[in-house]
Amino acid sequence: MESNDIQVLVAMFLYLVVTIVISVWYAKRANTNSDEYFLGGRSLGPWITAMSAEASDMSGWLLMGLPGVAYFFGASDAVWTAIGLLAGTYLSWKLVAVRLRKYSTVADNAITLPDFFSNRFHDNKRILMSIAAFIILFFFSIYVGSCFVTCGKLFNALFGFDYVSMMIVGAIFVFVYTLIGGFLAESTTDFMQGILMIFALVIVTVGGLIYVGGFDNVVANLKEIPGFLSLTSIANPTLDAKGVQEVVKGVLSYGDPGTYGIISILSCLAWGLGYFGMPHVVLRFMASRSTKELPKSRRIAVTWCAISLFSAVAIGLIGKAMLPDMFLTAASAESIFITMSTLLLPPFVAGIVVSGILAATMSSSDSYMLIASSAIAKNFYLGLFKKDATDKQVMWAGRITMVVLLILGIWIAADQNSSIFSIVAYAWAGFGACFGPLMIASLYWRRVNFQGALAGMITGGVAVVVWRLLIKPLGGVFGVYELLPAFILASLAIIIVSLLTTPPSEEICKEFDTYMDYDDAVEREVSTEAVA
């Protein structure tokens, strides 16, 4: 191994050591009880609330998947997706954060998303809770797999290490530090990882622009590729039977640009709808220390998101101008950020920057593992099978769930040619359609009832799978991203079924009418007086 590689490894190793130290620091508090382990006792301040929400959400696809799409297909897909995600980030913080923080406390102090839905509709049989927990386990298995793919690709691209071996090592590391520290450790490391991610994105963007001689040179190089810089068409690389771009006489081959019409634009913008139902994002709203701090968290989160998203797109475009024929497949193009980092920066600094990919991967996979484990432990194990379980038994059930998720994630990530962007798109649609419409209805519509909630959740999940597998391949108008039709169908199911069935009870309606009166500052004052 060359000295440059050793410096990169040392920087990454130091980052991993800091992560473990944080986990050990919070271990004692995390293991006090299940509320502390799974939600941190609702004690997150505004900066950690914001940064951990965004870092856990973006994952490795922000530093690898999104730049890869921009590098291989041009601006349209990447830019419209970034716009949709930024709009969704703002709207979810604006419309959901404060209301969910209040309502989740009023609804019998719900500490998981399945808890909230069951408590919100007084579902004593825990049907909503059980279905939501299953959905979380299923789609988070896919999500965790995408994170493990990122780990494998990172070390394979940097050092030539075996993809599968490195993927498994990365997966086990994330598992261990999440197991030790729980939600507070995970959220604190997510804050640190969010800082590292935005630093990495900005420094590589600036470095790339300097390398190619500025923005004008990037545009001059890329405008020669048909449709590459357009937002209403998409570059069409000519591929052989194995999906590798053809090179004719030393020049990359492109066909006529594809049309990028309203269906394609709506598909990308629809990514923003997913935010209303993302368990790892809304959980931060529930864990916030105070509703009065959430507007500050919103401003931090949206600013971070805007800088990070558009830096990621810029890296893909600048990378194409710098290294036009470096990557000849869509999957390999997801390594452009890594290649630019090692090319532009001193080895030790490059090691810190590419640790941003580890940061993105770890900040997401730890969230997915913890949320899935809390859903199964609190909602399946305690809620259905062993209602007299002790707190320690619940926590052990959660840890066993993490092991299952670890194995499923490794199995999904076994294929080195997996596209991070494609894997994330599937899971994102699943959560957005299953939980997004129901979240909005739960917080804003008095008339929604248990039957409507159940219909919406099931319709959303089924619609995503059916649309992706059977309808989307038909193309044309049916080629729209599955989240959009599934979100619409789930919303209609909630409205129609709620109106056709018995209205919610007077008790539920009274709770809905008064939940916004909840004041967490008063609750903390009362708790302090009680302790005194």
Number of strands: 4
Between the first and last Cα atoms, what is the distance in angstroms? Answer: 61 Å
Just name the CATH architecture.
Up-down Bundle
Strand order, largest beta sheet:
1-4
- What is the top-level CATH class? Mainly Alpha
Mean pLDDT: 82
Strand fraction equals under 5%
What are the segments in which pLDDT stays under 50 over at least 5 consecutive residues? Answer: 526-532
> How helical, in percent, are the residues?
over 70%
CATH homologous superfamily descriptor = Sodium/glucose cotransporter
Distinct helical segment count: 19
Classification by helices and strands = mainly alpha
Sketch the major β-sheet.
Answer: 2 strands, antiparallel
- Overall morphology: globular
Q: Briefly note the CATH topology name.
A: Sodium/glucose cotransporter
Computed over alpha carbons, the radius of gyration is 23 Å
Give the SSE string: HHHHHHHHEEEEHHHHHHHHHHH
Structural summary, described in words:
The protein is mostly helical and 532 residues long. It has one domain: Up-down Bundle (Sodium/glucose cotransporter), CATH 1.20.1730. The protein has 19 helices and 4 strands. It has helices spanning 3-30, 34-39, 46-73, 75-106, 113-120, 127-159, 163-212, 215-222, 262-269, 279-287, 294-322, 336-344, 347-385, 391-412, 420-444, 450-471, 483-500, 506-514, 520-531; strands at 233-234, 247-248, 251-252, 258-259. α3 (46-73) packs antiparallel against α4 (75-106), α6 (127-159) packs antiparallel against α15 (420-444) and α7 (163-212) crosses α13. The longest helix has 50 residues, at 163-212. The chain is globular. It starts with a helix and ends with a helix. Residues 526-532 have low confidence and may be disordered.
